[in-house]
Amino acid sequence: MDYNNKNNIAVQRDYKVVKANEIVQKARYDLNITELKAFAYILSKIKPNDKEGIEYVISVKEYCQVCGIDYKNGGNYQYIKSTLKGLRDKSFWLVDETGKESTVGWLGKVRLDKGSGKITVKLDEDIQKYVIGIFDNYTQYSLLSTLPMKSSYSFRIYELLKSYAFVKSHTFDIDDLKSKLGANNYVNFKDFRKKVIEVAVREINEFTDLEVEWQPITKGKKVLQVKFDIKQRDTWGQLEASFRANNQIEGQISMFDYEYYNK
Asked: How far is residue 41's CA from residue 43's CA, in Å, rounded to a whole number?
């Protein structure tokens, strides 16, 4: 990859993902990590003045390079097809201000042209108002922060904490947090802590613009809530996290890998 192309990929990884707080904080869904990254990549293509109904044309090669997928692998086309079909086929529940629940889809239409290496994507009509033309009450983060993550729970917890970063802490009822993450299968808190919270905190602290700590809030022996303390990194801290994130995407070992696989 030549210098100009490397620079272009670095620029695209720093594109911003913007979502209305309503969808970040209230939606309950269980996309896998590949689907979460793909949707974030699509959202990073949205420009501030875009209007609802717009279609986005994506290069398969650029998508692979930005997301750290081996473009030369013969299976990448099928891999992308499967990921985007998963997004097209799924929907989620969203609670509105009146307490009513509605289903919302992710993608309305996807067209792939293998010959040109282009993907044309249109967002589901119900989700567009939450991600296009958003100028207040929104959460914004760099695409790069999420690309090296291996856990879907890390991705979702990062989004949630990012939406509350301005107040520097947030406490979740444990059952509500599990519901938001699609992690209701973790009945035992010990498992939820080890497989969800601890992994998420490691990845967030390793790769993102946030530093977080957490603690359980108990009544007797029962854990009822989880409190997260949230600190925004300074400029130098963000540069270091970005360096680690890029290294991870390019396949180099990160401190998270070292600690996680050697503990």
From this structure: 5
Q: pLDDT by residue (tens digit) across 49-94?
A: 999 999 999 999 999 999 998 887 777 888 899 999 999 999 998 8
Output the domain CATH number for residue 231: 1.10.10.10
Residue 160: closest CA among 24, 54, 263: 24
d(CA 157, CA 141): 13
Domain residue limits at 224 = 148-263
Q: Which tokens go with 10?
A: 């670095």
pLDDT in tens, 175-187: 999 999 999 999 9
Count of alpha carbons within 13 angstroms of residue 148, beta-carbon side: 28
Q: What domain count does the chain have?
A: 2
Total residues belonging to the chain: 263
